[in-house]
Amino acid sequence: MGAGSTPAAPGLVLIPRQGGPRLLGRTLLEHLGLDELPPTVTSMDALLAGAGFRRRAIHGNTWERDGRAVLAGEEFLEDGARLLWTFPVPWDEASVRRHVRYLGMASHDLRGALANVRSYAALLLNGRSPLEPKVKRGLETILRNADRSLAFSQDFFDASRADLGALACEPERQSLLPLLDAAVERQHAAAAAANVALVLDMAPHSAGPEVNVDGARIQHAVEAFIQYQLARAQAGEVIHLRVRTTPPQVRVEVRREGTPLSDEDVSAVFLREERAFREKKLEDPLRVHLARQEVEAHGGGVGVETDRAGSTLFLTLTLAAPAELGPPASMQV
């Protein structure tokens, strides 16, 4: 949209627990180029596939057909009904490919230069050559800043690809527990330095729920939530990671016990530009916004809740279907 343009209205369909789908206005039909809603709509995937649309990326929420593209998804309501929604996407396939290629070139050049700086700093710090304390501290600072800049640039280019509906995801069936373990391990040092306890509230021998996800993407999203909470934690507070399974979904919570977020902060958690301009920083707003994009690329959702005892950032994913048992070994051909 250009400056001063009016945001597009969503197309909406309500699927109640009983009865047929209810079209809320004709905007969705206009987005999909349909004259009427099929009477047997059961899900957004079924509706779009039946209308001839195909996903732009595996598990993404951008669909396209003959140069027409829409963002689409569905939300579960408290009464068990589902709300299906669409938004038009002002990008044609050729433009998307051109922008993705441009982003790839920019990412290669920038990250290549940063990687060289990091490699030389690490080489000088390998202990083979004696260094004066002041020089050593300077090289350690260079190394930390290079790592931080590499992470930021990766987030920036990934978020830019996600804006185009072209975020790469490679889902596979796996347990959530190893991803959460890895996220806690990576953020443990930062939590300890802030005198904040970081606790994974799951039984040590629990297998955890299984999901079909790109593990690196979901781990990054969880770490982004942890880092958001760490930046606001006071010494002595506790951050809990919890998993709540309510089929067909699983919810991962990152809860900070302590002073709750303000209403202003709650409303802006996932708003990249608003937070960046207000906080005069881009790193964390971009990281948390990308976390939302990564979860939504898997068909999930994110949110934030507060109460008097603290604040919770959460993400939801669809549980993997139960694994089908094969025939007994003696019967396999």
TrEMBL record:
Molecular functions per Gene Ontology? phosphorelay sensor kinase activity
Q: Residue ranges of the Histidine kinase domain?
A: 105-321
Q: What keywords tag this UniProt record?
A: Kinase, Transferase, Two-component regulatory system
The reaction(s) annotated as catalysed by this protein in its Swiss-Prot or TrEMBL entry are: ATP + protein L-histidine = ADP + protein N-phospho-L-histidine
Q: Which SUPFAM superfamilies match?
A: ATPase domain of HSP90 chaperone/DNA topoisomerase II/histidine kinase, Homodimeric domain of signal transducing histidine kinase
Which EC number(s) are documented for this chain?
2.7.13.3
CDD domains per UniProt: HisKA
Q: Tell me the superkingdom of the source.
A: Bacteria
InterPro entries per the UniProt record, alphabetical: HATPase_C_sf, His_kinase_dom, HisK_dim/P_dom, HisK_dim/P_sf, Sensor_HK_Regulatory
According to UniProt, the name of this protein is histidine kinase
This protein's species is Pyxidicoccus fallax
